[in-house]
Write a structure and sequence with these properties.
- This protein is mainly alpha-helical and 223 residues long.
- The chain has 11 helices and no strands.
- α1 (3-16) runs antiparallel to α2, α3 (43-50) packs parallel to α7 (110-134) and α9 (154-170) packs antiparallel against α10 (176-195).
Length: 223
């Protein structure tokens, strides 16, 4: 909480001689609530301020994708922030301004505004997850290898198996996560190539065997 709010609370307690503790507690909760749900000091402000200019621009493409975001009000909120050109400091944005831009002609409604901010935060979280995934090429291919194997997509499995093997052989900076991923991919390839020639019960046995081997590997690696 900002120092100016602390001063107000301390002043209130001091001159009330501690005779109205419950009222003071409610007063404090109200101040905290208003501070957390204004743009300044909010999660939304914190997350927006952490974005680089490139990420903030990329957020536009993310929000416009009907597959990734279907909330038109969040898009309008983004347009409002973009037009203000205040990145990365959003602390002076007034919530009434935001509400008027998004819900033109409607009277300000705090619940509706907070719902809008909550939806924007969720969209930002999904955007950051997508950004993280786009930087993890190795993990993406590892998942695609697993997916193509489970769906019996032979050509796709062969493609990513080859790309991963090339990555494993050419990478110089290898940490424990890298070796673990390499191990998982090799087990996945072994299972796929072997299971295509075995019966159903043997496939189930292979899955169990993989789990046991992986568990042993993790224990021996002291993860």
């Amino acid at each position: 909480m900002e120092s100016k709010y602390r001063f107000i609370v301390y002043f209130y307690i001091l001159f009330d001689n501690f005779t109205r503790i419950s009222e003071t507690a409610l007063f404090l909760k109200l101040i905290i609530f208003l501070e957390e749900h204004s743009l300044k000091g909010s999660r939304l402000n914190e997350m927006l301020s952490s974005l680089s200019k490139e990420e903030f621009t990329g957020l536009n493409e993310f929000l416009l994708s009907p597959y990734l975001n279907k909330n038109k009000q969040v898009i309008l909120f983004y347009y409002f922030l973009s037009a203000k050109q205040v990145h990365p400091d959003y602390s002076k944005i007034q919530r009434e301004e935001v509400f008027e831009y998004v819900y033109k002609g409607q009277e300000f409604n705090l619940d509706k505004y907070l719902k809008l901010c909550s939806d924007f935060v969720k969209a930002l979280e999904n955007f950051l997850i997508c950004e993280l995934r786009s930087d993890r090429d190795l993990m993406n291919k590892r998942r695609l290898l697993e997916i193509s194997g489970s769906r019996n997509l032979q050509k796709t499995f062969s493609k990513y198996s080859g790309e991963l093997n090339l990555k494993f052989s050419s990478e110089f900076n290898k940490d424990l996560d890298f070796y673990l991923t390499e191990y998982e991919c090799k087990v996945e390839s072994f299972m796929y190539n072997f299971s295509s020639k075995t019966s159903t019960w043997k496939k189930l046995s292979l899955k169990l065997m993989r789990s046991l081997i992986l568990s042993s590997f993790i224990q021996n690696s002291n993860l």
